[in-house]
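Backbone shape codes
____________________
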Amino acid sequence: MALRDICLEIAKRYKIVFVEIGVEKDYIHFLIQSVPGYSPAKIVRKIKSITAREIFVRVTMVKKQLWVGEFWTKGYFMSTVSRNGDENIITQYVRNQGRSDRDYKRLHSQGLQMELF
């Protein structure tokens, strides 16, 4: 719940639309729409910095459970999507993250994961 709420707050403040959020056990996929004035790198920096800071405040046990104390890794992958091409394929891919992985489902039955998502 916390991550979703934080993303909704980011969307209101920065004109970033989270079309889909897909969660696996150790990574997250976002399908995002934004205004042309934001570079892809700027969008990633904003999302990663705000979500990490807010998760550590709202779900305090997260930082204690992270081995190196960082919510996000340094890397990321980004690709553009067009409405006329592959938007539906990417939407389905992101939407279906974690649906076939038993470990993901087991993690989500634990309290900490429920607080995050």
Remarks:
- Residues 102-117 have pLDDT under 50 and may be disordered.
